[in-house]
Amino acid sequence: EEASLPDLDLLHDPEDELLCTNLMDLVQATLGRAPLGTKRCSRLLMPAQLLAQVKTELLRLACSEPCGLRGALLDLCVEHGKACHDVGHIAVDPTVVPTFQLTLVLRLDSRLWPKIQGLFTSGPAFTPLKLSTGFRVIKKKLYSSEQLLIEEC
What we know:
- By secondary structure, the protein is α/β, with parallel strands linked by helices.
- It has a single domain, classed as CATH 3.90.470.40.
- Helices cover 30% and strands 34% of the residues.
- Strands 1, 2, 3, 4, 5 and 6 form a six-stranded mixed sheet that branches.
- Strand 5 and strand 6 form a beta hairpin.
């Protein structure tokens, strides 16, 4: 059965929308100082399309939770090849007991530029690395024994 537009409006929480915008700013700041174990300093950049997709997905996953997005713990990971680097942990609202955990797995852009940029010895010591628009979100409810929910985008 399809939900009508007014029904979908009932699920929209303006507070979660603002909270998610602030969360995405925090995610970008965390990625900007993420240690990836490389010799050169790197800054991970989220393309605008990825930012919008992640925000939409996090809001969708939070709408069925008792505290909405405020009850989320967010783990940030960056996948590069077969390695997955843990880059940060964020309690969306530290004053709320978490009800669910989201693991956001982002991927480095696998196009040619990230592969060859390490060949240049001269240049800035601070190298920006762009993330791919593909990502995965793993949702785990902390108050239930339900199975994990894995969303691949």
